[in-house]
Amino acid sequence: MPHDHSHHHCHGDPSEMGERRLLRAIAANMLLTVGQVAGGIVSGSLSLIADALHNFSDAAALLIALFAIRIGRRPPDQFKTFGYKRAETIAALINLTVLVVIGLYLVIEAVGRFITPEPISGWLVIWVAGLALVVDVYTAILTYRQSKTSMNMRAAFLHNLTDAMASVGVIVSGTLILLFGWVWTDAVMTLLISFYVLWHGFGQMPKVIHLLMEGTPHDIEIETVIEELEKITGVDNAHHVHIWQIDEYRNALEAHIVLEEGIDMDRLKRRAKEVLKEQFNIDHSTLEFENIACHPKGVVDD
């Protein structure tokens, strides 16, 4: 059974991001979180605390991602023959789960504020949210360059960009409280922030779980792969086809190929791998070849 275990690393690998730059982003979000929580408690603003929790989740996500990137750099060994890149996928699942828990908590707290409103210091809310806006923009700048080449860093950039938008929302809420005394706008802004958090968490989680469950990549149909393999001269049929993602960037396949009589197996194998790579971006394939004499047309082994 021929095997091909070639490994390629995508140019958009998050590990290309300078660790000092990433650590600065983490530190900025952590300091901002402390300041926002303190400001939220003193001012009585739930939306400020909500934004602080969101910023904390971003800082925690970046920190977990940093550890995962370092683990993911480890080369394959006898225990992890595909390497450790899925550490980043596991980190993503942890971060998304935390996001969902925070989002649900904020919804409960916001509803409670509608029932029993509390006094809020509008000026303090505006000043702290203004500081948050500056830090969010700074963090977004830190991650912008890497967001062009890395899906993970693009997500981090969008996180900080939307944090900046949330800070703008809190500033608007504080201004309305100062001008009109609309304390209820704080709870409304909290709900909006929490709905964004839940939307992001529930939207990304299925993709992460699909990868961890070794699901077929969404842009590949197994039937199409089988059809293309069976078009190759010398292939009688292809069966027992399994396709999955090794990590965010690499697809893998294993399949049984029944050969027609008198076919050069090595030449056919090279052609099959070319088809898989060029048409389906599958650069890791394990092909088991079988003799047609042992497999009459339409009959395959179990």
Task: Describe the structure in brief.
The chain is of the alpha+beta class and 302 residues long. 64% of the residues lie in helices and 11% in strands. Helix 2 (46-72) runs antiparallel to helix 3 (86-115) and helix 3 runs antiparallel to helix 6.
Model description:
By secondary structure, the protein is α+β, with helices and mostly antiparallel strands. The protein folds into two domains: 3-212, Alpha-lytic protease prodomain-like (Up-down Bundle); 222-294, Cation efflux protein, cytoplasmic domain (Alpha-Beta Plaits). The chain is 64% helix and 11% strand. It has eight helices and four strands, in the order βαααααααββαβ. The protein has a four-stranded mixed sheet, with helices on one face. β2 and β3 form a beta hairpin. α1 packs antiparallel against α2, α2 runs parallel beside α6 (184-212) and α4 (122-147) packs antiparallel against α5. The relative contact order is 0.14. Mean pLDDT is 77; it is low at 1-17.
Layout of SSEs?
Elements: E1 3-4, H1 19-43, H2 46-72, H3 86-115, H4 122-147, H5 151-180, H6 184-212, H7 222-231, E2 235-245, E3 251-259, H8 265-280, E4 282-291
Parallel strand pairs: 3-4
Antiparallel strand pairs: 1-4, 2-3
Helix pairs in contact: 1-2, 1-4, 2-3, 2-5, 2-6, 3-6, 4-5, 5-6
